[in-house]
Specification:
The chain has helices at about 50-55, 95-110, 115-130, 145-155, 180-200, 220-235, 245-255, 260-265, 285-295, 300-305, 315-320, 340-355, 360-365, 375-390, 425-435; strands at about 5-15, 20-30, 35-40, 60-65, 70, 75-80, 130-140, 160-165, 165, 205-215, 235-240, 275-280, 295-300, 325, 405-410, 440-445, 450-455. The strands form three sheets. Strands 6, 7, 8, 9, 10, 11, 12, 13 and 14 form a nine-stranded parallel beta sheet that branches. A four-stranded mixed beta sheet has the order 3-2-1-4. It has a four-stranded antiparallel beta sheet with strand order 5-15-16-17, with helices on one face. The chain contains 15 helices and 17 strands. The chain is an alpha/beta fold. The chain folds into two domains: about 5-70 and about 395-455, Roll (Urease, subunit C, domain 1), CATH 2.30.40; about 75-390, TIM Barrel (Alpha-Beta Barrel). The longest helix is centred in the middle third of the chain and has 19 residues, at about 180-200. The structure holds guanine and fe (iii) ion. The site of guanine has 12 residues, from helix 2 and helix 10.
């Protein structure tokens, strides 16, 4: 028999399609030395008993206790790591004023590497404790601090995709916080890409450089064009903000006489490895371009309630074939938890569907067919994120990475209302998705390594 590095035994929930959750009751998950799921075996299969007998009494065997379940680790497709320092505050202004009043002054402080280290250590640890095993990060304009963030992900065992932010337009950005000019921004970005690729050689779970124009309004044409070329040259990920708010969307229309999607495409910034945050104001032809180029949308439902002036028509975009994942958008979104964001994604979609102005008649109030289920939100937080990044993550299935969170529903301090004889496993899944808190996340594993465990 093949020898596995570890064997996990318990009940797992994993998306089998956007609308369906597969329940793997009492399954065995056999993990290889690379931290990948090599075999998944159910109780009715031939080798189940042999595997159990072989591994049960070894230190490679991990059996879940009663009331514990495996969920795939979450993929957060949009986090501003430096903004963790202001999470939960500064949510009183519209986007443009929020950036200039709170966010740029905060991000400017990341020129101080000691300050950066404190915040970055804390945000990576916090995301892991919230079940996020892969995160797509914006850092700041600073090359050194951005590289430090990649190193911290590497060391703490999180799969991190990290971008040094580019914002070079002197007309749009404050003097105290921007790239010196387009050439410097491009040279720093290329240096950063090479440094992260070098770091990646020794990181089991993967760490990746991301070409990161903050958004069109903060960049000159020269920088945008150069970044598209760098992404092609080094085959990197790309991230930015796209058609987020009335102001940001209109700014791009005024500058280019087209929407963000086509403008980004002209600069070579839409490709299979592109992830664009928000995208609330995508038109149908923008969405078609996303689907054609393989560009994914990072849906940030909490943040959208503050800054996007609208609810993302996520069901419509998904139906049009656009890849979708979920993002916390710390600190536009205040919560580091994708559980919270999945909940908000469902709530916002329901409000879009029904409409929100009670003075309108029911038939005029909402946008029909906009609602999504919690199953779909779970899919976006896991499989959708993995597919957006073209990485084998987000499912508890053979050939995928062992990225999991172990949820304890029976914890005395955070017990979920589960009464075993009355609840079927699908009810338990729903209760976890709606009610689990960070306390319920007992362990987190990335690529077969335990990266977090919560003391009782
Ligand atoms: N657009 C440009 N920068 C930002 C940012 O930091 N957060 C959000 N939500 N939108 C942006
Ligand atoms: Fe953002």
């Amino acid at each position: 028999m093949i020898s596995y590095t570890q064997v996990f035994h318990g009940t797992a929930f994993s998306s089998s399609s956007p609308k369906e959750v597969e329940i793997l009751r009492d399954h065995l998950f056999c993990i290889n030395a690379n931290g990948m799921i090599e075999k998944v075996v159910g109780p009715e299969e031939d080798d189940y008993q042999t595997l159990l007998d072989t591994y049960r009494d070894t230190d490679k065997f991990h059996r879940l206790a009663d009331g514990q379940y495996f969920l795939p680790g979450f993929v957060d497709l949009h986090v501003h790591a430096p903004q963790w320092a202001q999470s939960g505050t500064a949510l009183d202004l519209p986007l443009y004023d929020w950036l200039n009043t709170y966010t740029f002054p905060l991000e400017a402080k990341f020129s101080d590497i000691d300050f950066a280290k404190d915040i970055y250590e804390e945000v990576v640890a916090t995301l892991l404790a919230n079940g996020t095993t892969t995160a797509l990060y914006f850092a700041t304009v600073h090359k050194e601090a951005s590289l430090l963030l990649a190193n911290i992900c590497a060391k703490k065992g999180q799969r991190g995709l990290v971008g040094k932010v580019v914002m070079d337009d002197p007309e749009q950005n404050p003097d105290y916080y921007r790239d010196a000019d387009a050439q410097t921004a491009l040279a720093d970005t290329e240096e950063f890409i090479l440094a992260v690729k070098d770091l990646a050689k020794s990181v089991k779970q993967g760490v990746y450089p991301v070409v990161t124009p903050r958004f069109i309004p903060s960049c000159t044409d020269e920088a945008l064009k150069g970044l598209g070329a760098l992404a092609a040259k080094h085959d990197t990920y790309i991230q930015s903000h796209c058609s987020e708010s009335d102001w940001a969307h209109t700014y791009v229309q005024d500058r280019f006489d087209k929407n963000d999607a086509f403008a980004l495409h002209d600069f070579g910034l839409l490709r299979d490895k592109s992830v664009m945050a928000h995208c609330n104001f995508l038109h149908d032809d923008d969405a078609d371009l996303f689907a054609k180029t393989g560009t994914a949308v990072s849906h940030c439902p909490i943040s959208n309630a503050y800054f996007a002036n609208s609810v993302l028509p996520v069901a419509h975009l998904h139906a049009k074939g656009v890849e979708i994942g979920l993002g916390s958008d710390i600190s536009g979104g205040f919560s580091p938890s994708l559980f919270d964001n999945a909940r908000q994604a469902v709530l916002s979609s329901r409000m879009l569907d029904d409409g929100v102005n009670p003075s309108l008649p029911a038939e005029k109030r909402g946008v029909r067919n906009s609602r999504i289920t919690m199953n779909e939100a779970f899919y976006f937080a896991t499989v959708g994120g993995g597919e957006s990044l073209s990485l084998p993550i987000g499912r508890l299935a053979e050939t995928y990475a062992w990225d999991v969170q172990i949820i304890d529903t029976a914890l005395a301090s955070a017990k979920l209302p589960i009464h075993n004889d009355k609840d079927d496993l699908y009810d338990i899944f729903q209760k976890i998705m709606y009610l689990a808190r960070p306390e319920n996340i007992r362990e987190v594993w990335v690529q077969g390594e335990k990266v977090y465990s919560r003391a009782l």
